[in-house]
Design goal:
heterotrimer; A mainly alpha; B alpha/beta; C mainly alpha; A: mainly alpha; globular; B: six-stranded mixed sheet; four-stranded mixed sheet; 14 strands
Chain lengths: ~270, ~425, ~300
């Protein structure tokens, strides 16, 4: 079947594009120290677990992963909670300044993070929130709210009014209508927004670097960035840590890929 | 839905209740430094100090390894007058900046001149600014030349004393060895601080300078500096060193050497141990080490590196902080760390200590080199000047057809503008 | 009406607090600082209000001009590549076939990997002695190996490759969502009319995914103008300032050199460029929306 063959070729091509650099790095993590920087490079490693052991034991990789999960998880939950409530108001209450507010949020996301890092650090210092989870999470919430609000507002626009109005007539409060009716219907949208926020928070590096200097609290990107020694570049450990760090994400995406796509699609349904 | 709510709630709770960092009831001292490869560098000494000083706890904060990133982190705390940092490490190029900005505590009342003389001269000079001392040196580094003893012996060459000699020897060896993967020289020429260390070694060994500290003008566009830069561009990069060195920091350049693919190599003292370790190097036992070459008419110059301890001016526990600093820099502690980590200490006496020399014989040769090590000029505006110089060096080395004179003139003009800012600097 | 507005404000309150404190206040602070001369390690110079001086300096600064060129080149190259690759991937993923779920999951991997990790990975791939890039091109013949990160012409390309690798999947997802909303009936009607695959693409697919395309374009442009992590890890702005994008230049000024006033002006500059481009996009988007509804 020609169609199947063409699709097959393209699929393999896409798969190679996405996986090859990552696989190369993952294979590196199993090399022995000598093979690591062999010139020319060796393709198949002899399966050494040294780097994994070193990354886990001596570098505290698990603690970094745990911190990342806590920080990204908290940021996601709170952002989605706050954002969905705000988006509902923007979508339903016909406020005259809705468009202006959304554009303001867009404008905020245009500012380079390096410039606001200084004042944010200052603010966190005054609040005594440096080197705490809540400090870095607060920063992440502010960074992610624009995107989350935009996506959620778009979703809520698409939800039909009828069911809600029926409930309101029956005596439901606005909040109950939101909580019990609109939210469940918009689950795909909420899910999408949550995923985007989570991945942004998971990947974020700069704020985490300057806010979290206590090794017990550092997140994964900061932890990996600190692997390099003063004059050494531990490629092996970095490769091992990176492989371990991205495995949970890969599993998550494998499990939820259908939901993700459905979520992104549902937002634009209304031809 | 119920589960979703429960999940939300538990995450929110976890995050609100999870501890931030709350210091314990005992006296604590916060120490910011980079993470070390071995526990003997910081962890062990800290544990010892805590044992000797019951009731005191040292909280170690880890910063990035790269000197530039660590600098940015520490200055962030200092510029906001963070009282939570007491002791921190300084790279050898920071003391002037930190002194002038009022971030580092002057240590003269603790660190007497007589005591300062116990340390190597160059690091102490790097820690002084306008008549006061702002840091206590712990470790010293200086640029060295490494070479393949076996290859030089094979072709009956003695180690080169001048740069032109080095180029000739490298060329001859490359021609005779007929190994397409072998290169003559490996150094650090990426656009970063290490580039300044490498280039200053060429410029100063030709009798030139980076800038004139007395008159606060740049000297990059003077003949001797231009000559040295031209030499590197025309005779080294792309000739005996492949162009890849323009992206090399220390690790990559060292790997080239330890894989046996380079005849000569410029690096810091740490490379000696790595190159002679059979686990990590293919040329263990075939390595020689010597002071860097110079240009005819000049003398050898090694860029000074190293780390010192400083006390934050905003710390509320300066007496206790000094006790910690003095402990780390004491003869006994320095000896112990040197023996266990192999890093060159800042105390002069250790270079004639029997025990130390037995275990680390290379310290004897390092002693001579350290005596002629030159710090990069000390000024509060070192970082902007360094960025301008990095830009200039990287441009002329990476783009071989640029006009060196023109670029040097532009760089000098920019440097002069920055140097003008410090003309009326008051004493700190 | 007013009570519902009050209720709306209540709903919006938490958002407003966070956005106000942690986003608006720092941005205003940045704006304010850009009008001062503030050099951290020279405190005796004080914090002097210098009005537009920083902006004038920025306008005449050759390094900043070069940096703007580099940044714009980066944007102009990555966006079309991402859109093209993303669209291609989305089209394949839109078809129904076995293993589609697995492919979709694989496609998400580059995006899910932290930028810090992927930049190290690409640095490793582009290494001039033991990197995959050279191995694929020249095999074991190490004498012909290239050094992309050491060459001022190739280094920007390396950064672009690393960026596109990571973000094309994100674009693919957004476009896939757009594709999924196109009802099958339209394709069937086109088939009945005798349209070829290419014609179907041009006249059915493209017009109907325009909103999704523009959304992807908008967000990706804003992000591309602020690229930082990749440059920070892979090249630190070099060689010869070839990858010195505006965000990185601003970072060096603020954090490394302590020239907070000037660095803030650079940040405002990036913001303005973003704003201009976004307004342009939105104008096109609005025009399109009008077109769509009037049909």
């Amino acid at each position: 079947m020609k169609r199947a063959a063409i699709l097959g070729i393209f699929s393999v091509g896409i798969g190679v594009y996405c996986l090859l650099p990552y696989l190369w790095f993952a294979l590196t993590s199993w090399k022995s120290p000598a093979e690591l920087t062999a010139i020319p490079p060796k393709l198949i490693p002899s399966f050494h677990w040294d780097f994994y052991r070193s990354a886990l034991e001596e570098r505290g990789l698990l603690r970094y992963i745990a911190n990342s999960i806590i920080v990204a998880g908290a940021a996601t939950c709170i952002t989605v909670a706050i954002g969905s409530v705000a988006a509902y108001a923007l979508a339903r209450f016909q406020l005259p300044w809705t468009r202006a507010y959304l554009l303001l949020l867009l404008a905020i996301s245009m500012f380079p993070q390096i410039a606001i890092a200084g004042p944010v650090w200052n603010l966190l210092n005054h609040l005594d929130w440096l080197n705490t989870y809540r400090g870095v999470v607060a920063a992440y919430i502010a960074l992610s709210l624009p995107l989350a609000t935009w996506i959620l507002t778009t979703f809520f626009h698409e939800v039909p009014h009828e069911i809600e109005e029926a409930a309101l007539i029956d005596g439901c409060s606005r909040f109950q209508a939101f909580y019990k009716i609109v939210l469940p219907i918009s689950a795909p949208g909420i899910f999408t927004a949550a995923l985007l926020v989570f991945i942004n928070a998971w990947n974020e590096f700069f704020f985490a670097l300057i806010v979290l200097t206590d090794p017990n609290l550092q997140t994964l990107p900061v932890g990996i960035a600190l692997f390099p020694g003063e004059y050494t570049m531990p490629w092996g450990e970095i490769a091992a840590a990176s492989t371990l760090a991205t495995l949970p994400l890969i599993l998550l995406t494998l499990l939820f890929q259908r939901g993700i796509v459905r979520g992104l699609a549902a937002g634009a349904v209304k031809g | 839905m119920v589960y979703v709510r429960k999940f939300f709630r538990s995450i929110a709770l976890l995050f609100l209740l999870a501890p931030g960092y709350s210091p314990a009831a005992e006296t604590t001292l916060r120490f910011v430094t980079w993470k070390s490869e071995t526990a003997q560098m910081w962890d062990q000494p800290i544990a010892d100090f805590e044992k000797q000083n019951p009731g005191v706890k040292i909280i170690r904060e880890i910063g990035p390894q790269s000197s530039t990133q660590l600098h940015d982190l520490i200055t962030q705390k200092l510029k906001n007058r963070d009282t939570e940092m007491d002791v921190f490490v300084m790279d050898v190029i920071w003391p002037a900046e930190f002194a002038s900005a009022g971030w580092a505590l002057p240590l003269d009342r603790f660190f007497a001149l007589a005591e300062q003389k116990q340390f190597l001269d160059a690091p102490i000079q790097a820690n002084r600014y306008r008549g006061q001392v702002f840091g206590v040196p712990l470790f010293v580094d200086a640029g060295l030349l490494y070479y393949r003893k076996d290859l030089l012996e094979k072709y009956r060459m003695s180690p080169p004393r001048t740069w032109p000699e080095l180029v000739e020897e490298a060329k001859t060896i490359l021609a005779r060895e007929k190994d397409p993967q072998l290169v003559g020289f490996s150094g650090q020429f990426k656009q970063y601080e290490g580039l300044i260390c490498n280039m200053m070694e060429y410029i100063l060994s030709n009798g030139g300078n980076l800038w004139d500290d007395q008159h606060l003008v740049s000297t990059l566009n003077r003949p001797r500096a231009l000559e040295a830069v031209r030499f590197v561009r025309d005779r080294i990069i792309g000739q005996i060193a492949h162009r890849g060195v323009l992206a090399y920091e220390e690790p990559e350049s060292l790997v080239l050497f330890t894989e046996g693919k380079a005849v000569f190599h410029r690096n810091w003292p740490y490379a000696w141990n790595v190159a002679n370790d059979p686990q990590r190097s293919k040329i263990a036992g075939k390595v020689g080490m010597m002071p860097l070459p110079f240009f005819p008419g000049g003398k050898g110059v090694a860029a000074l590196g190293g780390w010192q301890l400083a006390i934050s001016r905003f710390s509320k526990k300066s007496e206790l902080a000094w006790r910690f600093v003095a402990f780390m820099a004491s003869h006994a502690m320095q000896k112990r760390v040197t023996l266990s980590t192999g890093r060159a200490p800042a105390r002069a006496a250790l270079y004639s200590d029997r025990e130390v020399l037995d275990q680390l014989p290379q310290l004897k040769s390092l002693w001579e080199i350290f005596k002629q090590a030159v710090p990069r000029p000390t000024t509060p505006v070192y970082v902007p000047l360094s960025n301008i110089m990095q830009r200039y060096f990287s441009s002329v080395l990476a783009l071989p057809h640029t006009n060196v004179d023109k670029r040097a003139a532009l760089a000098a003009r920019d440097m002069d503008r920055v140097l003008d800012l410090v003309r009326e600097a008051p004493a700190p | 009406m007013r009570s519902s507005h009050r209720l709306a404000l209540l709903f919006l309150l938490p958002s407003l607090i966070f956005v106000g404190l942690f986003a608006l206040y720092p941005i205003f602070e940045s704006f304010r600082l850009s009008f001062y001369r503030l050099i951290l390690n020279l405190p005796w110079l004080g914090q002097k209000m210098v009005g537009w001086e920083n902006y004038v300096d920025l306008w005449t600064d050759p390094v900043a001009a070069e940096s703007l060129r580099t940044t714009l080149f980066f944007v102009v190259t990555t966006i079309p590549l991402e859109l093209a690759l993303g669209l291609g991937m989305a089209l394949v993923m839109n078809e129904a076939f076995r293993g589609r779920g697995l492919l979709r999951a694989i496609v998400l991997i580059p995006w899910a990997i932290p930028t810090v990790v992927s930049s190290q990975m690409w640095r490793f791939v582009f290494n001039d002695r033991y990197g995959l890039f050279n191995f694929v091109l020249f095999g074991g013949d190490a004498s012909r190996y290239l050094a992309p990160l050491a060459d001022p012409t190739l280094a920007p390309m390396a950064i672009i490759v690393a960026e596109v690798w990571k973000t094309a999947p994100f674009v693919a997802l957004i476009l896939l969502a757009g594709l999924q909303t196109i009802p099958d009936e339209l394709y069937e009607a086109a088939s009945i009319d005798g349209a070829t695959a290419w014609q179907k693409f041009r006249h059915v697919t493209l017009p109907l995914i325009r909103p999704a395309l523009l959304l992807a374009l908008l967000f990706r442009t804003i992000d591309a103008l602020r690229v930082f992590d990749l440059v920070f890890v892979m090249t630190q702005g070099g060689p010869a300032d070839a990858t010195n994008v505006l965000s990185f230049y601003g970072y060096k000024k603020i954090f490394a050199e302590g020239m907070v006033g000037y660095g803030s002006a650079i940040a405002v500059g990036v913001f303005l460029v973003s704003l201009i481009l976004s307004l342009a996009y939105l104008r096109v988007l609005k025009a399109n929306r009008l077109e769509g509804t009037s049909r």
